[in-house]
Design goal:
- This protein is of the alpha+beta class and 136 residues long.
- It has a five-stranded antiparallel sheet.
- The radius of gyration is 16 Å and the shape is globular.
C-alpha cells in the first residue's frame, strides 16, 4: 500500500446555508490529496499531463459520516492499495477534530489526448511498483 496525508483548512465559501461543507466540495479535496500523493512519490502530475497522458475520474464514491465546518483543519489520507493497470484506484479518509468525516474512492483511467485508454507510462508504473515493493 502507498499512502500520504494532506491538510486542508475549510474556507467559508465551501460551506452551505447550514454552516457545513457542501457535499460537492469534498471531491476537489480528494484531487488535492491525490496530486500530493503522486508528487510525494517523486512523480509530476503536470509533467504527465504535458506529455499527453491524462487521468480522468471514471468512478467516484464518497460516504459522508460527519460534517466539516468553516475553519476546521481536515486531514485527508490518500492510499493506493492495488497495483495499477490501465486504471488506478485511490482511496480516501478525511478527519477533523478527532472525527471521521468521509471515506471514499476515485477510479481513474490512463488515457491519451484522444481519450483512448492506455497503459501507464513506464516511468510512472516503475515508481509505483517500487513504492509497493518498499524500495522508495
Amino acid at each position: 500500500m502507498i499512502s500520504s496525508k494532506t491538510q486542508i483548512t475549510v474556507r467559508f465559501a465551501e460551506t452551505d446555508a447550514m454552516g457545513v461543507v457542501y457535499h460537492a466540495n469534498y471531491l476537489p479535496w480528494c484531487e488535492c490529496a491525490r496530486i500530493d500523493l503522486i508528487e510525494k512519490l517523486g512523480l509530476s502530475y503536470v509533467k504527465l499531463s504535458d506529455s499527453g497522458i491524462h487521468l480522468p475520474v471514471i468512478e467516484a464514491c464518497l460516504k459522508y459520516k460527519n460534517p466539516a465546518r468553516f475553519g476546521d483543519t481536515v486531514e485527508i489520507s490518500a492510499s493506493i492499495r492495488e497495483k495499477p493497470g490501465v486504471r488506478i484506484k485511490i482511496e480516501y479518509e478525511m478527519r477533523a477534530n478527532g472525527k471521521l468525516l468521509l471515506v471514499g474512492h476515485t477510479v481513474h483511467a490512463f488515457v491519451n489526448e484522444l481519450g483512448i485508454p492506455i497503459k501507464p507510462p513506464k516511468e510512472f508504473a516503475g515508481v509505483i511498483m517500487k513504492a509497493f515493493d518498499g524500495k522508495l
